[in-house]
Design brief:
Structural class: alpha+beta
Shape: globular
Largest sheet: 7 strands, mixed
Oligomer: single chain
Radius of gyration: 25 Å
Number of strands: 29
Number of helices: 13
Length: about 550
């Protein structure tokens, strides 16, 4: 633990996607944080490989989306097999053909990237921001005090060291040591009694243009998905007799053993066992099956922590909620946890916001986690992997999830139509195709700059939109943004970015008004009255 300080602002336990995302967000805000990981290396498997549209927006804001897109690919079409013959293609995500363009949604499609590669890119970004992961370091205990948390950390050589911090965040997974240490219960249920096997392995002679499915394989359904930027496939195989595949049952009825014996055993995660499972259930010969990089067995279950905070300790990601893999929600929900918590810690620790702001983390994220758990559980139980039997749709993209009933949401515009954009919802993107002006930091005096065409150079000496072409480019960064749509831009506190926009897609989507866009891209306040701004911004530590 030579890199671990004795004092910091935030300790993050667990360097999976959740912990790495939070560490990146804190680093760009100038908040000192210590990120520790019990394992000697980052997680090596592909497990959470689908990045939803909302997660891609987060990664764009954090400055790593270009690398994510370069390393990944869109989801391939599914191809079903039976008796060694292809049976037809279908789409797991969306429908056939390209997604219709929508100026408010810059990344409309799910993007595939193995979890280990997502973590590598987050780690690289963290290093660019001046952060690092302390590997081989486990939390062995913690004590809370009115003004701090003291964590006892044990390094790879067994040496224990105490580190003091203002806050500690548990991002250490479903078996969270931190959650148990602070005594937060976690209630859940088994989604499926059948065990499952997931693994990454090399395969020769299998086309990489499709995600291959054997829905009636002896022993249970099996899927092989080509992993981008690698030569490997991700294997998913179900085991167990309950609701098993028709082919397995038919084989048993004929007195066969290929399916029946396998149905009654736990998944064998050894390299030989993984290759044996693939050879037994597909037309692929064992000679085509190469190196197994990683393998794991599990039974799908869901669980939700009773609360996401205990004093100065917060739960995030799998430490707070566990999902079935159906719907691709677990990793994405976890990243949203980190994105929600990061800016609030930054406002308290760097801008002097009242600590009560941190109460909103649980109030906003726990209902979202409960809703997403319901989605993934329903998808899992809806019918597996037969052709067209399991499709994901708009609810899984996380673009429609928001905080309309949250404690930081103030909708002060009367008489809105039913389909109007409201405070608490995700702030949509839009091209700057109207007249746009503003200041990166309007200062105490504030005021609108001279209007100019969107996307031009600075629109006036007082400031402008610079080279920005989209709203998301104005939002990008750790700041709070105020949009004056069809209105004068009032004076704003130092550190708040303000822009006036007239006409174009923005005014059509947002409607006229003054909008406070939180650092995580949600609308906090929507009003017509400039007098509403100071009090709201004060809650965020902006005075």
């Amino acid at each position: 633990m030579t890199h671990a300080p004795t004092r910091t602002e935030v300790i993050v336990v667990g360097a999976g996607p959740t912990g790495l995302t939070l560490a990146c967000d804190l680093a760009r805000r100038g908040v000192p944080a210590l990120l520790v990981e019990q394992a000697g290396a980052l997680f090596p498997g592909s497990r959470g490989k689908g990045l939803q549209p909302r997660t891609q927006e987060v990664f764009e804001d954090l400055g790593l989306l270009a690398a994510v897109h370069a390393a990944g690919r869109p989801y391939p079409r599914m191809l079903s097999w039976e008796d060694g013959e292809p049976q037809g293609e279908w789409d797991l995500v969306g429908g056939p053909g390209p997604v219709a363009p929508d100026p408010t949604v810059p990344f409309p499609s799910v993007w595939m990237l193995p979890q280990w590669r997502t973590q590598e890119l987050l780690h690289e970004r963290l290093r660019e921001l001046g952060g690092e992961v302390v590997l081989g370091t486990a939390l062995s205990g913690l004590d809370q005090y009115p003004d701090r948390v003291e964590a006892r950390l044990t390094g790879p050589d067994g040496t224990e060291r105490t580190v003091s911090a203002r806050y500690l965040v548990a991002a250490d997974g479903g078996r969270s040591t931190v959650r148990r240490a602070v005594g937060i219960p976690m209630a859940g249920e088994q989604v499926d009694p059948r065990p499952a096997l997931v693994a990454d392995l090399e395969i020769d002679g299998l086309d990489r243009g499709n995600w291959h499915v054997w829905p009636k394989a002896p022993g249970g359904p099996l899927l092989l998905c080509p992993l981008p930027s690698t030569t490997a496939f991700q294997l998913f195989a179900q085991f167990g007799t309950e609701g098993g595949a028709e082919a397995g049952a038919e084989n048993d009825a004929k007195g066969g053993t290929k399916g029946g014996t396998e149905n009654r055993t736990e998944p064998d995660t050894s390299p030989e066992g993984v290759r044996r499972t693939v050879a037994a259930r597909t037309h692929l010969p064992e000679s085509a099956l190469g190196r197994v990089h990683w393998a794991s067995a599990f039974r799908p279950r869901t669980a939700l922590a009773e609360r996401f905070r205990e004093g100065r300790v917060f739960l995030a990601g799998d430490a707070a909620h566990l999902h079935s893999p159906a719907g691709g929600q677990g990793l994405n929900t976890s990243i949203q946890d980190a994105y929600n918590l990061g800016w609030k810690l930054g406002q308290v620790l760097r801008h002097g916001a009242d600590e009560a702001l941190l109460d909103s983390y649980e109030e906003e994220r726990l209902p979202i986690a409960a809703d997403v758990l319901e989605i993934s559980t329903r998808l899992h139980r809806a019918g597996g992997v037969r052709a067209g039997g399991l499709r994901r749709g708009p609810r899984t993209e996380q673009l429609g999830l928001g905080y309309e009933d949250g404690p930081l949401t103030v909708e002060a515009r009367p008489g809105l139509t039913e389909d109007a954009l409201r405070a608490g919802e995700r702030a949509p993107d839009a091209p700057l195709d109207g007249a746009a002006s503003g200041t990166a930091d309007s200062g105490p005096a504030g005021g609108a700059a001279a209007s100019g065409p969107a996307g031009t150079a600075d629109s006036g000496p007082a400031g402008g939109t610079g080279s920005a072409r989209r709203l998301f480019e104005l939002f990008r960064g750790p700041h709070v943004t105020v949009l004056a749509v069809g209105r004068d831009l009032p004076g704003l506190p130092t550190g708040v970015h303000g822009y006036r926009i007239d006409g174009g897609v923005t005014e059509r989507v947002y409607g006229p008004g003054l909008f406070v866009v939180r650092p995580d891209g949600y609308l906090g306040l929507a009003t017509h009255d400039p007098a509403d701004l100071p009090g709201y911004l004060d809650r965020l530590g902006l005075r």
